[in-house]
Amino acid sequence: MDTLRFGIIGLGFMGRTHFARLRQHPHARVVALCDSDERRRSGQWNDKVGNLDDVLADDAATTLDDIAPYSTIADLVADPDVDAVVVALPTRLHADATVAALEAGKHVLCEKPMGLRVGDCDRMIAATESAGRTLMVAQCIRFWPQYELIERMVRAGEIGRVRYANLRRLGSRPTYSSDNWLMDAASSGGALLDLHVHDLDFVQHLLGVPDAIHAHGVIGQPDIIDLVTATWRYADGCYACIEGGWAFTPPWPFEMAITVHGDRGTLEWALSRGPAIRHYNGSDNVREITCEGDAYGREDDYFIECVRTGQPVDRCTPQSTRTSIALAWLERRAIETGRVVPISGRLKAAWER
Ligand SMILES: NC(=O)c1ccc[n+]([C@@H]2O[C@H](COP(=O)([O-])OP(=O)(O)OC[C@H]3O[C@@H](n4cnc5c(N)ncnc54)[C@H](O)[C@@H]3O)[C@@H](O)[C@H]2O)c1
Q1: Is 140 in the pocket of ligand 1 (CB under 6 A)?
Q2: Is 304 helix (H, G, I), strand (E, B) or coil?
Q3: SS3 at position 225
Q4: Is 199 a pocket residue for ligand 1 (Cβ < 6 Å)?
Q5: Which backbone phi and psi does 149 adopt, to 5 degrees?
Q6: Of the residues 35, 93, 256, which should be mutated to test ligand 1's pocket, given the most ligand atoms within 8 Å of the CB?
Q7: Backbone phi and psi for residue 87, each to the nearest 5 degrees, phi listed first
Q8: In whole angstroms, what is the distance from residue 308 CA to residue 27 CA?
Q9: Per-run averaged pLDDT (10 residues), the chain, 353 residues
Q10: Measured from the CB, is residue 40 less than 6 Å from ligand 1?
Q11: Backbone conformation region of residue 3, classed left if phi is above 0, alpha if psi is from -120 to 50, else beta
């Protein structure tokens, strides 16, 4: 298959983010769009969405001529001209939309988090297996150039044995989402599942499933987790501190950052300090490594390449993104009980498959 024909479901922040990349991709064509909002599916995209500046805005209206607009998910997935679907809907709808698309024979790139509950993820995994179609969850941090480079350097042993990792993602409450679904715990899972999941997924990807989790959180109104600080402990003494949330008072500037420390060096990157990562290796000169690239574009490239070549999605398997949802729920249990939550060796082995 030379060109993958895409349908995008949900035309808010992330739907438009993928549209902007896919319409320029040499092996992709966007042939269908779906949104329940009539203005959005007709291409009126001049409203402000998301927390990044490069989301497509009002230049799209003139470019939708050859694209079929649908108002329902069922109609888009029934379109025989669609090979692959991007699911960029409020999280409560991820599982149903993904399963419907897979059952209709489409490949699916579903936005993170995979689902609200582990049971949602299980339904998605069962559907990809029985349909024989590709499913990838768009955990974009696994494709973020600075995180990818830090991962590569850690795996190459450049900082020795990892002793500690600290990942932060902090901001104020987002106000852009359609019908304010992000502030509805039953739709988004709060900052725990919407924001913090990026970093807990990356720690799980980099260091594996921990042996125990301890966590504190700020539960705002109405019953939504606004801020999480979790500590993951590993049997060899290594630990990770993962902090994320949208509790801070505006105009607090959004920040994301990562520090990974090993017994032979420390790696660090922070959005607020520019694109270069810093490698502290004991010499007087801090090594700065410039690192640029578009995570969303790289993630789309990878998905397209996997589908075109028939290779399995091994950088971001559905099984591993399911594990991240399970770990988020264990953090929630730790917050609510105030107890350390141990993870048995048997569970670790099953989750690390
Ligand atoms: N990877 C990232 O960096 C990142 C960033 C933000 C959001 N996300 C994820 O992307 C997903 C979408 O978030 P968003 O920020 O784009 O939200 P959004 O509110 O900007 O957009 C959601 C869109 O879905 C449409 N919609 C809602 N119900 C629908 C239905 N039943 N049928 C058709 N359309 C429907 C809405 O009208 C809206 O246009 C979420 O899961 C979110 O967690 C990922």
Answers
A1: yes
A2: helix
A3: strand
A4: no
A5: -70, -45
A6: 35
A7: -100, 110
A8: 9
A9: 95 96 96 96 82 50 81 98 98 98 98 98 98 98 98 98 98 94 96 98 98 94 89 97 96 96 98 97 93 96 97 95 98 96 93 80
A10: yes
A11: beta
Q: What is the CA(88)–ligand 1 centre distance, in A?
A: 5
DSSP assignment of 205-222 equals HHH-S-SEEEEEEEEETT
In angstroms, what is the span from residue 227 Cα to ligand 1's centroid?
A: 21
The helix/strand count (H/E) of the chain reads as 12, 15
Q: What is the pTM of this model?
A: 0.96
Query: 35 C-alpha vs ligand 1 centroid, how far in Å?
Result: 10
Pairing of strands 265-270, 277-280: antiparallel
Could you report the per-residue pLDDT of 279-320, keeping only the tens digit for each? 999 998 899 999 999 999 999 999 999 999 999 999 999 999
* Strand duo 4-9 + 84-87: pairing: parallel
**Contacts within 8 Å (CB) and 24+ apart, 306-311:** 306/134, 306/136, 307/1, 307/4, 307/83, 307/84, 307/107, 307/134, 308/1, 308/2, 308/4, 308/27
28 lines ligand 1 (CB under 6 A): no
Tokens of 32: 């269908």
Alpha helices by DSSP H, listed for 189-316, are 190-191, 197-207, 295-309
**Residue 7 beta carbon below 6 angstroms from any ligand 1 atom:** no
- With a 6 Å cutoff on the Cβ, whether 144 touches ligand 1 is no
- Phi/psi of residue 12, nearest 5 degrees: -95, -145
Cα of 217 vs centre of ligand 1, distance in Å, is 25
CB burial readout 212-239, b (16+ within 10 A) else e: bbbbebebbeeebbbbbbbbbbbeeebb
